[in-house]
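Recall the central idea of this unit: under ordinary conditions, the amino acid sequence of a chain determines the structure it adopts. In this exercise we apply that idea directly, starting from the sequence alone.
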Amino acid sequence: MATAPAAEVPAHVPPELVYEIGLTTGPEFLAAPHAFMAKLHETHPPIFYSVNPIAGNSWVTIKHADAFFTLRHPEYFTTAGATPFPRDPNNYFFFIPLEIDPPHHRKYRAILDPTFSPQGVLKLEGYMRGLANDLIDDFIDKGETDFTTAFGRPLPVSIFLDLMGLPQDMRDTFVGWAVNLLHSQDRTSAGLAMRGIEAYLAQVIAEKTMTPDDRVISTIIQARPDGEPLTEREIFGFTFFLFIAGLDTVFATLNNMWLWLANNPDRRQEIIDNPDNIDAQVEELLRVFSVTFSGRTLTQDIEMRGVQMKAGDKFSSILPACNYDPEVFPNPTTVDFSRPRKPILAFAGGVHSCIGAHLARLEIKVALQEWLRRIPDFSVAPGAKTEYWPGGVVGPKALPLIW
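Accordingly, the structure predicted from this sequence is:
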């Protein structure tokens, strides 16, 4: 339980519900984040008030049903201002479509639905498999590699850059910006990254306005929802959000999965021996190794589980913890590829469910199939210590593997 200054906690918050758990930044979290979040069900109430000097204070839930409700009721929980990144109030932009509530949200989402639909992403499968094998070709004969830099990052990020119409030779620069923005505990570094991204994307948007292509940024620029073009700020906010969202989450997810695969050879073999179960395998691994959180702001007073919350309060769903809810997923920390199918929250939910969910699922499926076909036996390099990034996307900094 936290002992926070009274000024930092609203008067309506019961003292017994105030905790400082070091979520995303504390030493216990960083030592083993998924184990830490799973254990919250044993040590904390379903809804409590989290005091965090870095991420800010908010109500949080660890229950699947509560997160499910929150994500599907924007009339109580708005996404406006959901992202903590600083923006110039005199030249403000919303992260689109994340920070736009219904009904306006739909017009933005519809612009890219054809690209990110199941049918749309399936067109990329051959390209994904070719890319996965090209990457593996570069290191398979060495018998070792850092998974993060050699495969986990370049596979999804290269696919994303190609979709966006951004240059592959700037991949490391883009990733560096994203890491500093999402994981840096230093506001100066995060601010510099933010300004670097803003300046670069403004230039790209100007270029693609003059010389469009058939990729995502040009699609946004040329969109005419309701017969009208998007404003300059709408185009910028849409592009900026996709840029950030596409650079970190899937590669963090792959890192978590491959760490588990490296340490569990019998379960790895189970995947290899049951190729027809690949979709269930992907879904279960996504449940166990979710990497993101979901922030909202209350638009009106509401009571949940006897807890009174007020309009203006911040509210966060700890999605990985919600995917460990024992009331929904018995033996939740056990990876069970025969688990009955239930909605997972790896991609949030409701109208703001991740637009790239189908793309991510296919990337993970292809990565598993191609890697395990060519490198079925591997382990973590002896003596390697797993360290995790602080911040709102959970994954190891590096993953050295040998075979």
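The CA atoms of residues 389 and 397 lie 6 Å apart.
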